[in-house]
Amino acid sequence: MPDRYLSFTRTAPGRFLTRRLGLPQPAALHRWSPDRPALDGPLLALTAGPSALDLAPVLVRTGPAVYPAAGAARPAAVVLDATGVRDVDTLAGVHAALHPVVRSVVPSGRIVVLGAPLDPADHHQSAAQQALEGFTRSLGKEIGGGRTVNLVRLTDAGAAESTLRFLLSPRSAYVSGQVIDVLAAAGPVPPADPGRPLAGRTALVTGAARGIGAAVAETLARDGARVVVLDVPQAAQDARRLADRLGGTALTLDITAADAGERIAAELPGGLDVLVHNAGVTRDRRLVNMPAERWSSVLDVNLASVLRTTDALLAEGTLRPGGRIVATASIAGLAGNAGQTNYGASKAGIVGLVRSLAPRALAEHGVTVNAVAPGFIETRMTAAVPLFIREAGRRMNSLAQGGLPVDVAETTAWLADPASGAVNGQVVRVCGQSLLGA
Ligand code: NAD
């Protein structure tokens, strides 16, 4: 279902009319493509307060050319190191650093604020560091022009390199207003070709015959992975076609089967590196009208099967050390949505699973567990949403447009990167900073 409003605002009369009426002006987002793989301009590195981070070498490797102070060129990215902000006085350094440059950031530019973990023994430091969250989210809502603003909490710049590379690139076009902790013990990062970080790795994506799952499979294959495209038998033809195109394999299997995990393990005797739980269904009804079958079918596909297959693949040792699990939540699971008590419950369950399992899976299996939480993404699932709710979903976010499956796929690829070992237990919204939820 094409976004006609978006197309209209790209025409001269459309631009004129929507400006005059004060209607949203969705910017053309700069997404990754082979022709335009990097941001259109240099990176400006700023500091607020004293910092112990060894950031410079990491920024040099992330892509855009770095320059240290406001110069002639308009920055395409600004990184503000605010890890040394410990009280309200040093917090003033955040205003002092960004106030003069924020207007000059190019359209579809990036602002990344770096913060420190909150210190439970110091309520002044905690207040000042928590303040960065409100600052980031507020700036994300006001900056406009397809620009994004995110906060990364870290202690080691090297461990955050893959995260900075993602946030400072066109791959993160629909990720804004997020707070990402990069604080897990990363372990050694194997040397990899940054152009094909998943080379030599095997990735399995559930529900990959179409929609977001198909985009995830394509993006992981672009990054070098051998992909297994899993979907229900009814989608076998699409799954096979995609697998053939990507040089991978198709696996037709209903993920709710009691032995799904064992069947995947049997299919992958050489092991698995990346497991993406993407398959999902909606069966919307308000609770008063919802039969038990609608409840249980959604909970079974979206949550119970994720728990079952995860447990089985970890227990069987199919997921190799250095492995990555990426599950799919939804902002409906974070904010709630009328008519979706079943879906919201299932997706909130994913958040609980991720937060609980992540530290243990890393300690016991060397596997990270994270989730993506898509907002309104243009797929067959959202094309079925009634017109007015669909329009609200598209417009009620800082970027004033729906995301594309590739936006979720790029976020998944960053979490699946072997260099993302310090990112664990995170729920990253891919929602253009939707107004729903935090
Ligand atoms: P979609 O309906 O287009 O695709 C879902 C795929 O999952 C289909 O190919 C389907 O055959 C497969 N599937 C369903 N049940 C299965 C089962 N039992 N076993 C194996 N495969 C099964 O959906 P989408 O929009 O691409 O959504 C993908 C994921 O993203 C879902 O988990 C969904 O809840 C989540 N999500 C989507 C949006 C959005 O805006 N589209 C927003 C938030 C979250």
List keywords for this structure.
single chain, 438 residues, alpha/beta, Rossmann fold, 2 domains, six-stranded parallel beta sheet, 15 helices, 13 strands, 39% helix, 16% strand, binds nicotinamide-adenine-dinucleotide
Explain this structure to me?
The protein has helices at residues 4-9, 12-20, 56-62, 88-98, 123-143, 161-167, 211-222, 236-246, 260-267, 292-315, 331-335, 341-365, 380-383, 387-395, 405-416, and strands at 43-47, 66-67, 77-81, 110-115, 148-154, 179-182, 202-206, 226-231, 249-252, 272-277, 319-328, 368-374, 427-430. It folds into two domains: 31-182, Rossmann fold; 202-430, NAD(P)-binding Rossmann-like Domain (Rossmann fold), CATH 3.40.50.720. With 438 residues, it is an alpha/beta fold. The chain is globular. Nicotinamide-adenine-dinucleotide binds at residues 206-207, 209-213, 231-232, 235, 254-256, 278-281, 301, 328, 330, 374, 376-377, 379-382.
Characterize the overall form.
globular
Strand content: 15-25%
**Structural class, from secondary structure content?**
alpha/beta
CATH superfamily of the largest domain: NAD(P)-binding Rossmann-like Domain
Quote the distance from N terminus to C terminus. 28 Å
Number of helices: 15
Topology:
Blueprint: H1 4-9, H2 12-20, E1 43-47, H3 56-62, E2 66-67, E3 77-81, H4 88-98, E4 110-115, H5 123-143, E5 148-154, H6 161-167, E6 179-182, E7 202-206, H7 211-222, E8 226-231, H8 236-246, E9 249-252, H9 260-267, E10 272-277, H10 292-315, E11 319-328, H11 331-335, H12 341-365, E12 368-374, H13 380-383, H14 387-395, H15 405-416, E13 427-430
Parallel strand pairs: 1-2, 1-3, 3-4, 4-5, 5-6, 7-8, 7-10, 8-9, 10-11, 11-12, 12-13
Helix pairs in contact: 3-6, 7-15, 9-10, 10-12
Bound molecules: nicotinamide-adenine-dinucleotide.
